[in-house]
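Shipment paperwork, digital attachment
Item: protein structure file
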Amino acid sequence: MTFLTRRAGAGLAAVAAWAGLLGGLSGCTGDGGSPIEIQLPGRPRSPDEAIRITPDDNAKGVPAEGPLTVTVPEGRLERVVVTKVEDAQEEKVPGTIAVDGLSWSPDPEAGRLALAAKYTVDAVALDGHDRRQARHTTFTTYVPEERFIGYFKPENRSTVGTGMIISFGFNRSIERRADVERAITVTSVPPVEVSGHWFGDERLDFRPKQYWKPGTEVTVKMRLRDVEGAPGSYGIQDKTIRFTVGRSQISTVDAAAHTMEVRRDGDLVSTVPITAGAPKNTTYNGKMVVMELFDVTRMNGQTVGFGGEYDIPDVPHAMRLTRSGTFLHGNYWASPDTFGSTNVSHGCIGLRDDKGGGSDTPAGWFFDRSLVGDVVEVVNSQDKTVAPDNGLGGWNMSWTAWVAGSAAG
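Attachment content:
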C-alpha cells in the first residue's frame, strides 16, 4: 500500500514538472518579444496557418512587382498554381517550389504581374504529420488611371501592296519611346531588316529598307500591356497582327505628260490618261502609298483648307494617298478630253469615270486592281516632295535618315 502511494506521488510530480515545462516555454521568446509557437501533434493547423500566401486573399491594388509568395511553416508544398484570369482566358504564372519544399516563388523570367488583372492562387501542401491541406485565394493588381493605346495599319489578316508601311498612332503622348518601340516587334518570312521611325511623340512607323517582296508574310507583335509610355500612363494592348504582301504594283504619274504608267511585278501593264493639280493647286511629287479605298465618297474643299470651290457628294473610285487630302479618284464632271491633256484638279489625280462609278472606265479598271499598300509615285509636278509623315510617305526618306529616327537603336 505504501509502495502504491509513493508511485502515485511520483506520477503527480511528473505531471507537475511537464506542466511547469510547458508554462516555462510559453513564456520564452525567440526574438526578444514574440512567444515561441508550440504546435501540439493532435491539432491540425487551419488552411490559413498551414499555407501562407502573399498577397492576402481579396487584396486589391497589388503592385505589378508583387510580392507574390507561397510558404508553409513545416512539411512541404505539393502544388502551387497561379493563374491570371482575363476575358474568359487563363494564363499561368510560371514558378518554382524551393528544394526544401517550404516556399514557392515566380520564375525570374516571368516578369512583372499584369496591371488591372485578377489572379487566383491554388496551393496544396502536406504538414509535418502528412496531413494534406489546400488553399484558394484571389487578388487584383493595380489599375492605372491613365492608359494608352495604339491605332494601327494595316488590318489583321489583310493582303497589302509592296509599299505598305506599318503605322501606329497613339492616343497619348509617348515620352518613353524606346520602351514602347521595343514592345513592338516586326518579323517576316522571308526575313528582312525592319526599323521603326518616330514622327513626333504620338506616331511610330515601321518599314524595311526596300519595298516588301511579293508573297512576304509579316507578323507584328504588340506587347504594350503594362508598358509605361509616360509617367503613370501604361499600355493595354497585347495583340498579334499578321498580313500578307500581294503582287507588286507601282504606278508612276507624270504630271507634265498627264499620264500614269501602271507596272505589275516590273512589267508595264497600261498607260492611263490622267489630270493632275492645276498650276495654282499642284500635286505633290514623291512616293505615296494607298491608305484607303472607297467605292464612293464625298469631297468637300473646306475640309482640306480650300473655301467653297467644290463639294462633290459622290466621287467614285477614290483612293486616299495622303492625310492632307490627296486622292487618286474617278472624275465624271470634267470633259473627257481633259484627261491626258490638261491639269485641272485641286491637287488630286483624276481618272476618267462615269457618274456612279463605271466598271469599264479607266478609274474603275484601276480601282479594281488596287490594294492598300500599293505605291503611286508622282514626278514632274511643280510642287515639293510630299512629307514623309503625310500619309505613308516614309519611302521618301533615305534608309539612313529613317533608322536615325528609331528610339530603340
